[in-house]
Amino acid sequence: MISLFDFWKVLAGVAIFMLGMMMLEEALQLLAGRPFKLFLRKHTTHKLKAIGAGALVTAVLQSSSVVNLMLLAFVGSGIIQMENGLAMMLGSNIGTTFTSWIVATVGFEFNLENLALPATGIAGIAMMLLNKHSKWFQLSKFFLGFSFLFVGLNFMKTAVESMVQQTDLSRFNDYSVLLFLLIGVLITALIQASSATIALVLAALHAHAIELQPAMAIVLGAEIGTTIKLFIASAKGIAAKKRVALGNFLMNVLVSLLLIFVLAPIDKLITKQLGVTDPVYALVVFQIFVNLFSIVLFYPFLQPFGKFLSDRFQSSNDETLFIHKIKPGETELAAQALQKEAAYFLQLVTDYAKRIFELNHLENANNTSFNKKPVEEQYEFIKHLHGDILAFYVKQQAAQLQPEDAMRLQRFISAVRNGMYAAKSIKDASLDAILLRNSSNDKKYSYYTESREQIKHILTTLNEILLQQKTEQTAADLIQLYKHIIERYTQELKKLYLQSSIEHLNETEISTIINYNRELYTAYKSLLLAVKDLLLTEQEAQQFDELPGFIR
């Protein structure tokens, strides 16, 4: 009978191993994040180079997930072509075997406690003493994460050995390999780390708790389970990211399903022909074989496979509402669509501001799917939509446009550009808003509540202007709001420099409030200019521009 203590010890070992992987990833990304990204960007112009780059970077970063998430960003922004991205994924799978080699060679050949405990103690104490922004802190974090791999592995190894002594686990080897495949999928999908799954299987092999073929099946399951993280990361992203995730899933599923039925011949090939009799090393060799087989299978078909994926997940209404329906050259329709898309874009920006300043109770004008997104995803969505609208505008410029048509399009794209400026200023102000909102200092909290009421007034007014049909009163309403913003900003500046306003604040707190006020003012200004460009006629806009300028 397996003791509850051993079960929890295995679970703790998996958790510590995963924590070590996470610390390794974070430390290495901060130590060499930009060089790695530049390396990938430079070496993914050809499929073969992309495979090598994916393998090398994954081996160094110790995580295929980190590399694949970088790949999502590159493909999504158009820096890497789909077929080269797929090639990089194939190489990334090869790179993951480096962790397995470390576990197999060091983890079971030496006394893990003699290796891990000194490194854990020294690195952990160093992290407590060092500046969090220094490279030495990140190096200490790297070594602590590396030592955690072996602490976790030691927990798994000793717990599994104890289980074997208490219970005969050999009967489980008679179950179908498909069951072990499913186990590998489920475990990896749950813990989101294929390296931890494989380390656990290696510990089971070392303790003779499982035979080689069932272990191979679990590894194949882990290859499928690890694709779930990419699916989650791309689920609410743009179409290009969904294509990358689908490609990764299809490649891993196809390879796993092809190999699951020929495990016996592969077992003989590794153990008899190659002479790898130690099951721990045999499993690592099998993992390498799986990933090399993937390259051989898919490399000749990367271009058509990439084209197949490019036809999936066409841009939907969740990205652009109007402009994706218009072909380049349809001048009048393009202008109307761009105006509607710009209005939709500005409504998203105002909804984003409501979310930042906890004004969700105000009536929302646009789709609920945006309002259900986490606030970080809302900003990313706004950025992507801004890029889509800009790309549409650039395409329209290639057409033969009349001067008045070109001027209209220019005003609408100016509205979108100013809306993006507003979103960026709101994002920059959000951190200061959190500090002020959570402050125990009454003056700081009071300043936040006052600014929140100001934001509420401005957003409500702009939303009313955006939602109503253009009237003769629109220009007057915008001018009135313009004067209100300038008056309030002038008053706030005078108030901030009064002794009574700052006497209970230190230098950092004063600077925070001044910067916060400036970011809000910049957001107001940008939103007002955006609505002006969107709704006013050329003559009205010119009169607006002749008003006394904004305070700089």
Describe it for me?
This protein is mainly α and 552 residues long. It has 2 domains: 4-310, no CATH class; 323-545, Methane Monooxygenase Hydroxylase, Chain G, domain 1. The chain has helices at residues 4-42, 47-61, 64-76, 82-107, 112-129, 135-166, 177-191, 194-206, 212-225, 227-234, 239-259, 263-273, 279-298, 302-310, 331-356, 368-371, 375-397, 403-437, 442-467, 473-496, 499-502, 507-535, 538-545. α1 runs antiparallel to α6 and α18 (403-437) runs antiparallel to α22.
Strand content: under 5%
Q: Give the overall shape.
A: globular
Give me the Rg, rounded. 29 Å
SS content category: mainly alpha
Q: Count the domains.
A: 2
Q: Span between N and C termini? A: 75 Å
**Unreliable spans:** none
Q: What is the helical fraction, as a range of percent?
A: over 70%
Count of discrete alpha- or pi-helical segments spanning 4 or more residues? 23
What string gives the helices and strands in order? Answer: HHHHHHHHHHHHHHHHHHHHHHH
Mean pLDDT: 80
Strand count, sense and barrel status of the largest sheet are: none
- Structure summary, number of beta strands: 0
Topology, please?
Elements: H1 4-42, H2 47-61, H3 64-76, H4 82-107, H5 112-129, H6 135-166, H7 177-191, H8 194-206, H9 212-225, H10 227-234, H11 239-259, H12 263-273, H13 279-298, H14 302-310, H15 331-356, H16 368-371, H17 375-397, H18 403-437, H19 442-467, H20 473-496, H21 499-502, H22 507-535, H23 538-545
Helix pairs in contact: 1-2, 1-6, 1-8, 2-4, 3-4, 3-10, 3-11, 4-8, 4-11, 4-13, 4-14, 5-6, 6-8, 7-9, 8-9, 9-11, 9-13, 10-11, 11-13, 11-14, 12-13, 15-17, 15-18, 15-19, 15-22, 17-18, 18-22, 19-20, 19-22, 20-22
